[in-house]
Fold SUF system NifU family Fe-S cluster assembly protein.
Amino acid sequence: MSFNNLDTLYRQVIMDHYKNPRNRGQLEGDHTTVELNNPTCGDRIDLQLKVEDGIVEDAKFEGEGCSISMSSASMMTQVVIGKNVEDAVKISHMFSEMMLGNDPDTEDFKVEELGDIQALQGVSKFPARIKCATLAWKAMEQGVDKEQSE
C-alpha cells in the first residue's frame, strides 16, 4: 500500500473513532475517576476505570477536544479493557515512545498487534499535537496507579 493510501486510511480510522467513539459514557458502580485537561488547547478527559484483581474490567470516558485527543481516548479504552494493569501500562509506555518518534515495539507488544492505535503514528511529526494524543493514556496510568494505591 502506498504512503498516500496508508495516510488516508489512518485519517479515516482517526475520524471514525472521533465521530463514533468507543466506550464513551459513564461507568456504573465502584470505579476510579481521573480528570485531566490540556490547558494549551482545551482538551479535557474524564476517564473512569474499573479494575478488579489487577485486570482493567471496564473503561469509559467523557470529554471534549480535538479529533486526535478524543479518538486516542476511544482507541485506548478498546486496548486496555481486559488487560492486566501491568500490560496496560506497558502499552501506554509503548504509545508514548511512538509519540516521541521512537520505535514503539517491545518484546511484549508490537504496534501492529494493537489495532487502530497505529493510525496515530503520524502525530509524532506534529509536536504540538502529542499532548492531545497522550492525554487519555496519562489519565489511564494515573487511574491504575490510584487503584493500586487504594
The mean pLDDT is 93. Residues 127-149 form the longest helix (23 residues). Residues 3-149 form a domain with the Sufe protein. Chain: A fold (CATH 3.90.1010.10).
